[in-house]
Design goal:
There is one protein chain. By secondary structure, the chain is an alpha+beta fold. The chain has a six-stranded antiparallel beta sheet with strand order 2-1-4-5-6-7, with helices on one face. The protein binds adenosine-5'-triphosphate (ATP). Keywords: ATP-binding, Cytoplasm, DNA damage, DNA repair, DNA replication, DNA-binding, Nucleotide-binding, SOS response. The RecF protein is involved in DNA metabolism; it is required for DNA replication and normal SOS inducibility. RecF binds preferentially to single-stranded, linear DNA. It also seems to bind ATP.
């Protein structure tokens, strides 16, 4: 799959832009703050309905405007498809596929991209939320209906938390307990599904991770990943992690029924504590992925360089997984400001590893940071305008 055309209206610092693209690598260059990242952020938005930089849509709408519009044309083999979204600075967005209205989250069914960015370092070193989002967005790319399951779980969680808050202290009534039982059922139903899917995903990602790490680093540091599942109790803790809650599980060895059984027991055991604290303490929202290098947890032991390699390897593994499982072919790879962070050897290794993806979109402030093989199509960006003619290097 590749993007053939991108049109922007009032997106970030673009009043309007119209860009035609083909397969292969494209390099967006320009000084700092010109709009390179904004451009690829718009493309990434259509795959994930979110930005890799901000959590709210408001920042995406050009300052002083009410809406931004992103329109994209995609090609896969002989087929083409038009996607567009109107992003509101407040209120609901509107999405269309082939001119027909769809729910915004359905856009993910039609377009897959994997974005590499300096922020990826937080996958290895940051808080569990970044790792959960990484896994969940990969799940939704593979199986868009899971987007609905995750959204439903988050809604149930919000309502359950609000009920638990109102039950704190001596205030809980029988009616409240009965309502909590109802939310528990929904939580177990949806949460067990999410846990099971994440475990299976880890299983599928693992072989790609070992291969991509080897290709990027040229050495085998035995990268692996496991899930720390809060619904499985307090059986294990990972060195250096503060709470140590949840058991480590490698791969999808457990069935959804077994997960539900253990989740049910754990939820019952934790109920008094949850009522005391007024918050849900067990479930996929409390789980974490643990990344290992040479048998040690990378989050607390990996060096800066090793953490970077692990983060890149995870993204490359994700791209290869999507490629191997998707009927729509390769995901579009986006590399935002990544080459500036790497030494010469990792630059050329990364260039080689991504070189055969159908379309690769790269941003860089300094042309020379990007290996020569990826510089065949250069697009210069200056103050929210795109220049595609001859580039004076
Ligand atoms: N909502 C918005 N409305 C108007 N301008 C915006 C908005 N959001 C960001 N900008 C502007 O976009 C510019 C930043 O663009 P972008 O992040 O794409 O830079 P870049 O070319 O990738 O730079 P760098 O090389 O520093 O990463 C800044 O000048 C910023 O003020």
């Amino acid at each position: 799959m590749h993007v053939t055309r991108l049109q922007l209206h009032d997106f970030r610092n673009y009043e309007s832009a119209d860009l035609s693209l083909g397969p292969g690598a494209h390099l967006f260059v320009g000084s700092n703050g010109q709009g390179k990242t904004n451009l690829v952020e718009a493309i990434g938005y259509l795959a994930t309905l979110g930005s890799h930089r901000v959590s709210s849509d408001q920042a995406l709408v050009r300052f002083g405007q009410e809406f931004a519009v992103v329109k994209m044309e995609l090609a896969h083999e002989t087929r083409s498809l038009h996607l567009d979204v109107q992003i509101a600075s407040s209120g609901a967005n509107k999405a269309r596929v082939g001119g027909q209205n769809v729910r915004s989250r359905d856009l993910a069914r039609y377009f897959a991209s994997v974005l590499f960015a300096p922020e990826d370092l937080t996958l290895v070193r940051g808080e569990p939320g970044a790792r959960r989002r990484f896994l969940d967005s990969l799940l939704v790319t593979h199986s868009p209906k899971l987007g609905g399951v995750i959204a439903d779980y988050e809604r149930v969680l919000r309502q359950r938390n609000s009920l638990l808050r109102s039950m704190r202290g001596p205030r809980s009534s029988e009616a409240m307990i009965a309502t909590l039982d109802v939310w528990d059922e929904r939580m177990l139903e949806l949460g067990s599904q999410i846990i099971a899917e994440r475990l299976l995903l880890c299983d599928r990602l693992l072989p790609h991770l070992a291969g991509s790490y080897q290709r990027l680093v040229g050495a085998d540091h035995r990268p692996t990943l496991s899930m720390r599942v809060s619904a499985f109790g307090h059986a294990a803790s990972v060195m250096g992690d503060a709470d140590g809650e949840g058991a480590d599980v490698e791969g999808g060895e457990v069935t959804t029924a077994e997960i539900r059984e253990r989740f049910t027991a754990q939820l019952a055991a934790m109920r008094p504590r949850e009522m005391e604290r007024g918050v849900s303490l067990v479930g996929p929202h409390r789980d974490d992925a643990v990344f290992w290098l040479n048998g040690l947890p990378a989050r607390v032991t990996a060096s800066h360089g090793e953490s970077w390699s692990f983060a890149l390897a995870l993204k490359l593994a994700a791209a290869e997984l999507v490629r191997s499982e998707s009927r729509a072919g390769d995901p579009v790879l986006i590399l935002d400001d990544v080459f500036a962070e790497l030494d010469a050897s990792r630059r050329s290794r990364l260039a080689e590893a991504i070189g055969d993806f159908e379309q690769v979109l790269i941003t860089a402030a300094v042309l020379e940071d990007v290996p020569e093989g990826l510089r065949s199509q250069i697009i210069r960006i200056s103050a929210g305008t795109i220049q595609t003619g001859d580039v004076d290097e």
